Amino acid sequence: MMPRRSASACSIRAGCSAMPCARGWNCAATRSGRMVFAISWRNQDASDRELDMEDYRRMGVMAALEAIGEILPGQKIHATGYCLGGTLLSIAAAALARDGDDRLASVTLLAAQVDFTEPGELALFIDPSQMHFLDSMMWNRGYLSADQMAGAFQLLRSNDLVWSRMVREYLMGERTPMSDLMAWNADSTRMPWRMHAEYLQRLYLDNELAAGRFMVGGRPAILQNIRLPMFVVGTERDHVAPWKSVYKIHQFTDAEITFALTSGGHNAGIVSPPGHPRRQYRIGVHDRDAPLLSAGEWLDAHDPVPGSWWTAWGDWLTAHSGAMVSPPAMGTALGDAPGSYVHQR
């Protein structure tokens, strides 16, 4: 077994279907000698209808931190969240900072929003009337079905994800060979009624997190309390979490933020391993006391770098980690890979 760094990497991964593994960024972390703990969505059914945002924070993010603490007592954790998982991680990190809990060493957010005033084209599907319709539909069923969620995301890029495929497959008879990323995209997940209704109402419509009004444990979880080093990734062609919206994290924390803008979209831009052709990214560091650039100014000030942002992230993690140590015994805190949820139908 390879030695691991003393500051473990914890991948808090919620939303956007299942974790990519064989070519995923978590495997890049393990190959570089880091111990990675990963969680993903459970595919909910009607019996989970009452699970809410607090349940996902408590039984998702916090339970993962506690499990890691059993294996690596006293060690700080590099926490990573993707898409909605990044939003949940931001909420958890703000609550931890508020309460003086110092278990985190850093926070990495991948295509994750904390301010929802400019959510891009997804706003077309989220307004009070649509919210009422969705809430009624989810209440009756107990969850938002995976095909409904996937359909909304496909319509955001209808030329690429709907019509071009129709022409190629049904008119021309040309089937696209399956790839790792296509299989990942096809593995969509359901959302429980209460959690998804809260997510849309409290974050998208009411923007409680950015306004400092998102309550955790009866008190607001304020992003400005996060003072940990942050690595934040946006993608150039993201229709789910537009990069200029992701960039707004600079306005809400007093942390040192390394921001990377990578080519590609919401999925392919993140799952972008070294060696992938035509990939590039821009990267810059904003110190806590430095003046803040607008998104457009930041773009003009940073030139593209060929390659994958993973390499830069790996260097950043190394700079914020301790010395290499031997791996710990895993004990009984975790089950065998790939976990139990994958076997559910």
State the secondary-structure class: alpha/beta
Estimate the helix proportion, in percent: 25-40%
**In order across it, which strands form the biggest sheet?**
3-2-4-5-10-11-12-13
Ends: how far apart?
34 Å
Query: In this structure, how is the largest beta sheet organized?
Result: 8 strands, mixed
Unreliable spans are 1-24
Strand content: 15-25%
Number of strands: 14
Shape: globular
Number of alpha- plus pi-helical segments: 11
Name the average pLDDT: 83
Structural commentary:
The chain is an alpha/beta fold and 345 residues long. Helix content is 35%, strand content 16%. It contains 11 helices and 14 strands. The chain has helices spanning 25-31, 53-71, 84-98, 128-141, 146-156, 158-171, 180-186, 193-205, 243-246, 295-301, 309-319; strands spanning 4-5, 8-13, 36-39, 77-82, 104-110, 143-144, 191-192, 215-216, 219-220, 230-235, 257-262, 280-286, 305-306, 324-325. An 8-stranded mixed β-sheet has the order 3-2-4-5-10-11-12-13, with helices on both faces. A two-stranded antiparallel ribbon has the order 1-14. Strands 6-7 form a two-stranded antiparallel sheet. β2, α1 (25-31) and β3 (36-39) form a beta-alpha-beta unit. The longest helix is centred in the first third of the chain and has 19 residues, at 53-71. Residues 1-24 have low confidence and may be disordered.
